[in-house]
Amino acid sequence: MSVENEIKSYESIEIQHEKLYLLPEKAIYWAAKKLLLIADLHLGKAAHFRKNGMAVPPQTANRNWKKLHQLFRLHQPQRVCFLGDLFHSTENKEWTVFGELTQSYPDIQFELVMGNHDILEASAYEALGFEVYQESRIEGPFILTHEPLEEPALYNLCGHIHPGVKLSGKGRQSHKAACFYFGEKQAILPAFGSFTGLAKIPVREQDQIFVIVEDQVIPM
Fold first, then answer.
1. 24 phi-psi bin (left φ>0, alpha ψ -120 to 50, beta other)
2. 23-52 pLDDT tens trace
3. pTM value?
4. Are 143 and 161 in contact (CB under 8 A)?
């Protein structure tokens, strides 16, 4: 199956006359721009906690690397924009691994809109070839940020919140799942990183929610 046919099989939404594909790896692919949007990796967080005595398995980071490779190889984006909280620590081994990963894709332009946990100097990202934006980036009809804007001038694509919803089943069973949230003025991406929590978000009748369950994106 070609890349074009593969992407058409994913759940999608049209916002501001642009079709955005919602990927089960918790990312958005804007095929018309060949742009991959990813929020809240929090790379280095697991290593940071292990350094401080918390027993966090190394497989947590390995899942992130595997998903990134899978996205880059399958969709072949020309650009990847991280919507903040890319690296949740000072430089450590995971930063070195991340640099090796990004440099193994020389045909991809990497971009970062800085988030509140991006404590490294901008020069550290620029050394890996990143274009760095301190607060926001305008792309077509969208304004890309890390934190949601209260009154965005353009439709806002962002992260930061780690949105999730509670799914209830028979026998009082329930499950909290990550989701894509689309409101009137902004969309909030799910947190990509494996070692991140979920925040339950209020949902209004006109909002659109897409839940990620067992490697599928399902509209609610």
1. alpha
2. 999 999 999 999 999 999 998 755 544 454
3. 0.89
4. no
CB 15 within 8 A of CB 155: yes
Query: What residue type is assigned to position 216 of the chain?
Result: Q
Nearest partner of 125 among 94, 160, 77, 86, judged by Cα: 86
| Listed residue (187, 219, 218) closest to 201, CA to CA | 187
Q: Are 143 and 149 in contact (CB under 8 A)?
A: yes
Domain with 60 in it:
3-219
Number of domains present in the structure of the chain:
1
Give every CB contact of residue 214 below 8 A, 6+ residues apart in sequence.
none
Chain length of the chain: 220
Q: What is the dihedral of CA 169, 173, 176, 181, to 10 degrees?
A: 20
Q: What is the CA radius of gyration of the chain?
A: 17
Q: What Cα–Cα distance (Å) separates residue 70 from each residue in 11, 23, 65? A: 18, 11, 9
Calculate ∠ Cα 188-91-146, nearest 5°: 15
Measured in degrees and rounded to the nearest 5, phi and psi for residue 89 equal: 180, 175
**Token pair recorded at residue 41:** 């990796």
Q: 111: which strand partners?
A: 81, 131
Decide: helix, strand or coil at residue 120.
Answer: coil
Residues contacting 10, CB < 8 A, separation 6+? 21, 22, 23, 24, 29, 217
Mean pLDDT of all residues in the chain?
87
Query: What is residue 48's predicted lDDT score, i.e. its pLDDT?
Result: 47
CATH number of domain containing 117 = 3.60.21
